């Protein structure tokens, strides 16, 4: 058993050695031993390729503004492990992590002796979150973000009030399949019998899979651009503004602080969800709650302007669709500046395509690596690049410090790639900016 936070965290992280083990049997075994805490939770399940974390943030902020106590389970964490299990946006304490780990630890050891094998890191954290919101600290509503895929993801043992599928992209194709239809099949696995589904999926072959699954499960489906609509959208200096319309009502002049067309879509999913909660589950959520909640919502690492002078942007574009959104936003907002890019990514991504797209806006690129089991090394990234003005640096801290310290006002630094990388680099970049201002 554990007496300190570091001991508990070390044990949890050692489970990474088991990698990804899709399937629900181990989670079902753990829930049975815990007395099925997942059945006591009023929850919403959020899946998709991109936009899950932002959608969770928007919806949480709306619900908090309406006066509800909201739990959330997200991944990966950005600066601190505890963020993965949060209460009203505040990570749970170190002491609670120790307490939850001590609940799961003996069960994990017992499970390891069975034919099912021991639980992975993600399964342990997921079990901790179910126990926390189901037994230790019940909430008015809990938001659960899918880790990978959906159908066989550890979170997919809940029967939520709503299911949300944000988008479909060609990510994790080695596990989820090579086509949009394959990936959509896995994402659609979170659709439950009789539970409404909200989605912003666009690709015809992907949305067809979701529609067919919803029909089989008798799930009422609400689609962006079919059942709810974004209108009059435009960018502001600090974010985006838009109007929202559906057959419930219309909301005009909604402002959000996160930048990009994709963030408007994520916000619209949260609005639709909040209205269904009001209509079908008697949650009291007014228009003023929706607008204020969306305006206050912030999720780090999503086109995150760390500094305006010098201009330093951190963005978690960790797959091709994310890179597309980043490039579009850079072209729209900063076409007048030369763009320096520092890039690090996981080795299981389509790195050549991602780098090729970044090169369309980059004046200079620096390729780095970071301490993570699946991180691509700097030299591999460097060799994939066709840009003339490029370099590599094994120590990303050196690269960040050098670029920020010499960045002229005519240029911008964009640090992008893996969210695991950004969780380390964002606080460091902010620190270097502050040091240089002294």
Q: How are the SSEs placed, and which strands pair?
A:
Elements: H1 5-14, H2 25-33, E1 43-47, H3 52-65, E2 70-73, E3 85-87, E4 90-91, H4 94-112, H5 121-136, E5 141-145, E6 162-165, H6 173-176, H7 180-187, E7 196-199, H8 204-216, E8 221-223, E9 228-235, E10 240-246, E11 250-256, H9 261-281, H10 287-296, E12 304-307, E13 311-315, H11 320-333, E14 338-344, H12 351-358, E15 362-368, H13 378-384, E16 390-393, H14 396-405, E17 411-417, H15 419-437
Helix pairs in contact: 1-4, 2-4, 3-9, 3-10, 4-5, 7-8, 11-12, 14-15
Number of domains: 2
Instruction: Write the CATH homologous superfamily of the largest domain.
Output: Mur-like, catalytic domain
| Strand residues, percent | 15-25%
Question: How far do the termini sit from each other?
Answer: 46 Å
Strands ordered across the widest β-sheet: 4-3-2-5-1-6-7-8
On the 0 to 100 scale, the average pLDDT is 94
Helix content: 40-55%
Report the count of strand segments: 17
What count of helical segments does DSSP give? 15
- Briefly note the CATH topology name of the largest domain: UDP-N-acetylmuramoyl-L-alanine:D-glutamate ligase
What would you report as the Rg, rounded to the nearest angstrom? 21 Å
Flag low-confidence runs. Answer: none
The backbone outline, from C-alpha atoms, is globular
Structural class: alpha/beta
Sheet having the most strands: 8 strands, mixed
Q: In CATH, what is the class of the largest domain?
A: Alpha Beta
Q: Under the CATH scheme, which architecture of the largest domain would be assigned? A: 3-Layer(aba) Sandwich
């Amino acid at each position: 058993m554990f007496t300190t936070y570091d001991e508990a965290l070390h044990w949890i992280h050692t489970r990474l050695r088991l990698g990804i083990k899709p399937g629900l049997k181990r989670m079902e075994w753990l829930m049975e031993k815990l007395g099925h805490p997942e059945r006591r939770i009023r929850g919403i399940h959020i899946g998709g390729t991109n936009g899950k974390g932002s959608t969770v943030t928007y919806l949480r902020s709306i619900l908090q503004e309406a006066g509800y106590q909201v739990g959330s389970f997200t991944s990966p964490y950005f600066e601190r492990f505890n963020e993965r299990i949060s209460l009203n946006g505040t990570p749970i304490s170190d002491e609670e992590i120790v307490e939850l780990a001590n609940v799961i630890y003996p069960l994990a050891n017992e499970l390891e002796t069975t034919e099912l094998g021991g639980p992975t890191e993600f399964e342990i954290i997921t079990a901790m979150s179910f126990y926390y919101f189901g037994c230790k600290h019940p909430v008015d509503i809990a938001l659960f973000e899918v880790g990978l895929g959906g159908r066989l993801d550890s979170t997919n043992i809940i029967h939520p009030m709503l299911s949300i599928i944000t988008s479909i992209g060609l990510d994790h194709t080695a596990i989820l399949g090579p086509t949009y239809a394959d990936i959509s099949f896995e994402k659609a696995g979170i659709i439950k019998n009789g539970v409404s589904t909200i989605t912003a999926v666009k690709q015809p072959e992907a949305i067809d899979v979701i529609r067919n699954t919803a029909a089989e499960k008798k799930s009422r489906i609400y689609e962006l651009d079919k059942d709810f609509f974004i209108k009059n959208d435009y960018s502001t200096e600090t974010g985006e503004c838009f109007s929202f319309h559906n057959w419930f009502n219309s909301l005009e002049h909604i402002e959000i602080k996160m930048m990009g067309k994709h963030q408007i879509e994520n916000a619209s999913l949260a609005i639709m969800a909040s209205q269904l909660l009001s209509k079908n589950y008697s949650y009291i959520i007014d228009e003023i709650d929706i607008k204020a909640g969306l305006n206050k919502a912030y999720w780090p690492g999503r086109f995150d302007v760390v500094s305006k002078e010098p201009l330093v942007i951190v963005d978690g574009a960790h797959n091709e669709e994310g890179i597309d959104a980043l490039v579009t936003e850079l072209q729209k907002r900063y076409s007048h500046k030369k763009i320096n890019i520092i890039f690090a990514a996981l080795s299981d991504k389509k790195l050549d395509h991602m780098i090729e797209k970044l090169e369309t806006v980059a004046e200079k690129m620096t390729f780095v690596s970071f301490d993570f089991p699946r991180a691509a090394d700097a030299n591999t990234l460097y060799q994939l690049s066709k840009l003339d003005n490029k370099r590599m640096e094994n120590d990303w801290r050196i690269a960040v410090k050098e670029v920020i310290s010499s960045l002229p006002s005519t240029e911008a630094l964009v640090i992008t790639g893996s969210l695991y990388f950004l969780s380390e680099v964002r606080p460091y970049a902010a620190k270097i900016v502050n040091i240089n201002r002294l």
